[in-house]
């Protein structure tokens, strides 16, 4: 084991401890797969990344992404958080203001928007879920069929079943059966548009959530999102870049949302995540968010 530079970064927030934490080992050279997986399980965070020299000539660096249960080909908050950590540690992109990250899904462009970073959403494959799967997932979430506006199976590396619900209140009050979702082997993301006026449900949020919003100055949200990933050992993810990326491509294309919007995620966990979505003139969807370093030091690996 040797000492390696390490950061723990909070992603999709400008206020420490209100986003989604990420562990970043800034020198992953010489660490074997088993050791990477063991360390990711030890951090007990939704994702841990290892930064490596690129093998593609146009990439600035390479990253491997691990959950406590396995490796991912791509994930959103690890993409932004790893880039933030790499730049903060002195990384110099080959092209000013434009970073290229190499991961198992391929090359992912990242751009700077002031202090905020945004990644180009990888192409998404989407199909309609089977009625059987949809019924089983709805039962695990405690939903009735009429509460689901539309649904799609979304795959941009990670695979999600995306559900658009009738309203944000329903999203925020879901109490999933995580054991049932784990047995189904299906990660599920849900989204709902806020109503025009505050409802009793929104007013009755817990004191912890109310304190979270009182201490942050995050952007107003156009949609509420939650993500349940029991099959990979994470009952609920605080803020999920990969799901928001595929969700945006789906909902913008089908006319449910405009080409630029802000998604909120994490309220039920006492977080205040904000995901900034924009589709450019070429049709590329960019997924942006702030990041802040909370732990800066070294780790023995």
**Based on helices, strands and strand pairing, what is the structural class?**
alpha+beta
Oligomeric state of the chains? single chain
Terminus-to-terminus distance: 5 Å
Quick one: biggest sheet?
18 strands, mixed
What is the helix fraction of residues, given as a range?
Answer: 10-25%
Q: Give the overall pLDDT as a whole number.
A: 91
Number of strands: 18
Note the beta-strand portion. Answer: 35-45%
Instruction: Give the count of helical stretches.
Output: 8
Q: Are there runs of 5+ residues with pLDDT below 50, and where?
A: 197-216
- Radius of gyration equals 18 Å
What is the chain-wise order of helices and strands? Answer: EEHEEEHEEEEHEEHHEHHEEHEEEE
Give a verbal description of the structure.
This protein has 301 residues and is α+β, with helices and mostly antiparallel strands. The chain has an 18-stranded mixed sheet that branches. A hairpin with an 8-residue loop joins strand 1 and strand 2. Helix 2 packs across helix 8. The longest helix is centred in the N-terminal third of the chain and has 13 residues. The chain is globular.
